[in-house]
Each structure stands twice: as C-alpha cells, then as structure tokens.
Amino acid sequence: MPLIPTRNVSFSSGAGGARRVFVAAAIRLVSRGATRLTAGVSTASPFHLVVIMGVAGSGKSTIGRLLADSLGWAYFEADDFHPPENIAKMSRGVPLTDADREPWLRAIRDRMDDCAGRRRPAVFTCSALKASYRRVLTAGLGDVVVVHLSADPALVEERLRARSGHFMKADMVRSQFAALEQPADALTIDARNPPAEIVASIRAKIGIAP
C-alpha cells in the first residue's frame, strides 16, 4: 500500500482544506505502517534455557524454583522425568547406570527442545554429572546456560539426612561424587551461598538483573 494518496490534491494557496485532508490521510497511513512493523517485535525478556546441575543435595530444586519464580519463567524438575523403574531402583539405594539415565536425559531434552521451539524461557534442574549427559541436554541448542551448584560431601550428607520423603538416600552420596565430572564451561557457584545470592549471580550471568 503506498504511503501517500494517489488521487490528485491541489496544493494551491486556495486549497488549505484539501491540504489538511492530505496530511491527515498520510498520517493515518504511516501510523498503520508503523503498527504493522512493531506488531511482531517482542518486548519480552531475552530467550534462555537455564540448566541447574549438581549432585543430589546441592540445592538444585530450591534454586531452580526461586530463579524461575523471580523471572516468571517455566520450571521443570528433573525428578519428574524419571521412569518409575529408576525411582524404584534409587529408593532401594542402588545407583543408576548410564543405560538407566538415557531415557531420563532424553525426556528432559525433549522438553527443552519443545521450549526452544516455542521460544519459551525455562529453568531445568538435572544432576547432569557427566560431560556426556550434558551433551545430551545442550548439543545443538543455543542460549543454554549451565549452572553448577558446587557442594562438598559433608554438606550434601547433612542435607540429605535432614530431607524426608525423597528417594535419594544419604548413603548414595559417594556414587554421586564418583560420577561427577567438573564442567569447564558452566557458571560454578558455591552451594553454601545464600539462595538469594545464588539467584542474583545467575540472573547477572544471563543479563537480567534483579
């Protein structure tokens, strides 16, 4: 659509009324064009997926929920993606194998792909102890920030013994640390830090200040 009327309008000194009609019509057309140009521009926060990783008891769920709430983003808890047989196995105090973890990691990745496809910012928790696990979750995805909550065995044992109703037992701590491969490319934060401080550090990393 042209931005000026195509009909003839006189610009002579005696055509003040016509000139006003012309200007009004042009303003309406430019305004409609500007509306069309800005209608598709999002004013929402930058798109990110945040994966909070670490051994059991490092505080992933606590920090994940706090971060998601502070940002107004979706939150996905890794435990919700475990098949029943994995939960039963861990409840008996038996560590999971890589084969056990494969369908769990794939289920999390599927949900991450869904969020990415819809440009839906989200926070995920996942122990993601090995580099190979992290590759399953992040390979080929842009805008993924991995946060490692670093904890020592004493802190983890203390937290797990105080936690009730969870399938991860304190006597499985050793297997968690044995499997952990320290990430070189993650934002590593001391799990002893106050939760509000941890959330602020993550928000600074993704460029969304509190």
Describe this protein's structure.
The protein is built from 8 helices and 5 strands. It is α/β, with parallel strands linked by helices. It folds into 2 domains: 1-41; 49-205, P-loop containing nucleotide triphosphate hydrolases (Rossmann fold). Strands 2-3-1-4-5 form a 5-stranded parallel sheet, with helices on both faces. The protein starts with 15 loop residues before the first helix and ends in a 5-residue tail after the last helix. 26% of the residues are buried.
Question: Strand content of the residues, in percent?
Answer: 5-15%
Total beta-strand segments: 5
Gap from first CA to last CA: 44 Å
What is the CATH topology of the largest domain?
Answer: Rossmann fold
CATH architecture of the largest domain: 3-Layer(aba) Sandwich
The residue fraction in helices comes out at 40-55%
Number of helices: 8
Class per helix and strand makeup: alpha/beta
CATH class of the largest domain: Alpha Beta
Radius of gyration based on Cα positions: 27 Å
Low-confidence stretches: 1-44
**What best-fitting shape do the alpha-carbon axes yield?**
globular
Quickly count the domains: 2
CATH superfamily of the largest domain: P-loop containing nucleotide triphosphate hydrolases
